[in-house]
Each structure stands twice: as C-alpha cells, then as structure tokens.
Amino acid sequence: AASVAAALALVGTAGYGVGAASGGGSSTGQLAADSGRSTEELAIEPGIAADAGAGANGAALDSRSSLVYPGGSGRNAFHASGLSTETGSAVAYGYDARSAATAENVAALAAALGMSGTPTLENGSWMLGSYDGTAPVLSVSLDGTTSFSYTDPALNPWCATVDASGVCTQEAAGDLPAEDTAIAAMRDVIAASGQDADAFEYTSTVYDGAVSRSVQAWPLLDGERLQQAWYLEYATGGVYSVNGSLAPLVGLGDYPIVSEQAAFERLSDPRFGASMSIMPADGPVALDMGVAEREAASSEIWTPPTEAPATPEAGSALSWAVNDVEIVSARLGLGSQWQSDGSVLVVPTYYFTDAAGAEWSMIAVADSQLDFAG
Fold it and tell me: What is the pTM of this model?
C-alpha cells in the first residue's frame, strides 16, 4: 500500500501517553549521559504521585504507602534484553465518522431500537427522544468515531417507579436475563447499525443480586480487539441501554514503524512517556519488592496512625522510590490515536509485558510520521 504522508499528532492517545516534559528539552540519550546511566535504565517521573487508592484485596493505601500503580504514581526504571532491532511498516486505519453521522443512519438505528420520529441536530449531536425520563432517548455524537448512546427509562433494571423529584419509590424486580438472550440483543443492534455482528467478540458479566445483564462487544481487526467496545445493559423487558461507535474503519496504507528496541526506549523518553494498558493481576505493586513480596504485601491492611510523623533529621535521605520494571516480551498490535481535529486513527502499537504480568503500550509509528508540534 502507498505510504501515507499525513503525520500523527501526539495530542491524545489510548494505550500510550505523552510523558512529563524534561527541563531543557533534553533527549533521552542526553538524559542518560547526564545521569551516567544507560537509556534502558533511565527512570522517568510522570508527575506528582497521587493517592494510590485501594489494593487488589481491599487493602487501603494512603499517600505514604510504598504500594503504587506503576505508571500512575512514582517513577519507573525499565529493563529489557533480546528485543528485536528490526524496523518495518504496518497498516494504519482511520474511522470514517463523517459517512456514518447522517440523519438517515441515525433514523435507521432508532427504528431498530423501536423509536420513531425525525432526528434533530442539537449541540453537536443527533438527538431523538427526550431526556425527561418519560421515553427512550438516542444521542449520536459528531465525534471521531460517531459514538452513540441509547437509554429506555421504562426498562430501568434498578427502579420501577420514580416520583416527581427523581427519587426511586419502587425497586425493579425480575429474573436475570439469559446470557444468550442478552448477547443476541447486542448482535441485533450491531447489525442494525450496518456493521458485521460476526466481526465482534462478545463477553457478558453480572454481579451478585443483579436483575440485568451487561454485554460487551469488542470489534476485531485481524483477530485483535480494538479499543472502541460496545456496551449493552439488558433488563427483563429488553434493552435498557446500549452505546457504541457507528463509524466504519478505512485503511490508510502502510506507516513506517520503529523496532521493538526503539519502542522500548520510548518508554523512558519524555516525549512519549510510559502508560500501563493492563494492570498486574495482584493490583498495586511495591516499588522496592519482588513479585513474591508484592503478592504478600497486597493483602496488608492500612492501620491509621496514632501520632504524627517524627521530625526529619538533618541530612536525612529523600524518599525517591523507583519501580524496577523488567520487560520480558513484546508484540506488535494496534492502538487508538486521537488527532487534534477530533478524528481517530487505529495505528501500529507495541505492547510490552513485564515480569509482574502488567502490560505497557507504546506507539510504534516512526518519528518521521509523528507531528510533535501537534
């Protein structure tokens, strides 16, 4: 396929983020040289650490805890060996939002959902129905994927009756819908939108005491899930809510890509930054612990202090914990890229798995196709 001249502007990404800028705009290599460390060992501080929240087993973590979500708090030092240095090219895609965002398409989707009437364009969205809670409502946004949302308040699975002030006066009741029924409903909506229902992967989830069933539909491209998933809530009486993206994908040709090694080095490059796309199974990790120690620590319960911290002593070392991340494997996949004009692309992306089971993602497109000015 022909090479695409347009450059990607790194203004908003899913799966990889723009890291904190380094003072003076130094390159990764210069930062490594200044610190006396290799590029692979360079640790980037993404920003001020926030409260890490609760651990995987409900353990409460306060701002003093050494347990953090890598990439979300603290600093990371990445290590890897044996990564490929081979460059190449891979196909990129874009969402054709404009072709999908028409009144005719919105009306067809509305009809499939049992609605009637003429959609109107209001505040950047095609609208049909009413938000007063008396009837179903459909909204289709003029965004980069033509995202839509639909809700039928009459089928609220959690409340059967609402008073004038919006307070639920009668809880809904009913049997939990069957998984096959809920997935079939999702397939029907996808087909009604003009997309191939067989080109999606379906999952269904429920929780204890649920009277509705949630369905997720992941669009597949070459067997890989894309990040624009559809979600549906199915109640006893039918579809309570559903949202997804109506825009079709179009091929944009081949883009040059960097090697696994070069993409790995981007994890420590402040122009790119490190972003975790899959958390380790044991939740937050300790900055100075191995995998086994992390598992034991994740079950610890925070105990409230009984006195304030001691006064720091002169010459005290500064707490500057660094999370040591060992990358053990890499694969080339796809990730979403939001452009400055609101359009959305699906571009080659590397996914790195570390020794703790977490996955880090990094855009694979070569610098020559990146518009660093935005």
Answer: 0.74
